[in-house]
Amino acid sequence: MKRNYSSQEYWDSRYTHEESYDWLHTYDDIKPFIESSKMEHQMRVLVPGCGNSELSNDLYNEGYTNITSIDYSSVVVDAMNKKYGHLKYEVGDVTNLSTYESGSFDLIIDKSTLDCLANVGEDTTVRYAEEMYRLLSNGGIFVVVSYSNFRSETLMRENTMWEVLSE
Fold first, then answer.
1. How far is residue 13's CA from residue 40's CA, in Å, rounded to a whole number?
2. CA-closest candidate to residue 33, choices 141, 150, 129, 116
3. How confident is the model at residue 158 (pLDDT cuts 50, 70, 90)?
4. Cβ(68)–Cβ(92) under 8 Å?
5. Per DSSP, what are the bridge partners of residue 96?
6. InterPro entries annotated for this entry (predicted)?
7. How far is the C-alpha of 95 from the C-alpha of 160, rounded, in Å?
8. Nearest residue to 162 via CA among 135, 137, 133
9. Phi, psi at residue 145, to the nearest 5°?
């Protein structure tokens, strides 16, 4: 099947046949960065475009308990809710999470969601950047794990309030 990242059918089909996949890095790879940010375990965490990654459960096992994981595909959300009943998985469009108030999350961890959205189009990445900025609390941290150094340019261009740190 052709990779059409904007198609819900693509993602539903993929997750029907795939049990688990961690884009780019595992939690252990990004753990030092998260720990260095001094985030408290009670902080409100969002994992947008969670897919079937083990990230949310790994965060839970590290002591984070207020985790919301959102994905476009109801197939993967249903599967993850069955697999990890102690976690909160929801179906949603990460470019429009209007059910959440501004400042709802202290830590947002994007593992290649921005990469997928960049393949859809610039207007989609703009909406996503604006929505993540809206959802982030004052002093909150948005961690973007990407295969492209150009993603930080998208964030800076769309909102001059971001402070972008690169590793």
1. 37
2. 141
3. low
4. no
5. 93
6. Lys/N-term_MeTrsfase_sf, Methyltranfer_dom, SAM-dependent_MTases_sf
7. 19
8. 133
9. -100, 115
Residue keyed to tokens 């459960």: 57
Contact call for residues 33 and 143 (beta carbons, < 8 A): yes
Q: Is 85 left (phi over 0), alpha (psi -120 to 50) or beta?
A: alpha
Residue with tokens 């973007």: 144
What letters, b where the CB count within 10 A reaches 16 and e where it falls short, cover 127-144? bbbebbbebbeeebbbbb
List pLDDT tens digits, range 11-52: 778 778 877 767 678 889 888 888 877 778 889 999 999 999
Reading the block at residue 44, the tokens are 């409100």
What pTM was computed for the model? 0.86
At which residue do the structure tokens 């949603």 appear? 92
Residue 51 CA to residue 128 CA, distance in Å, equals 17
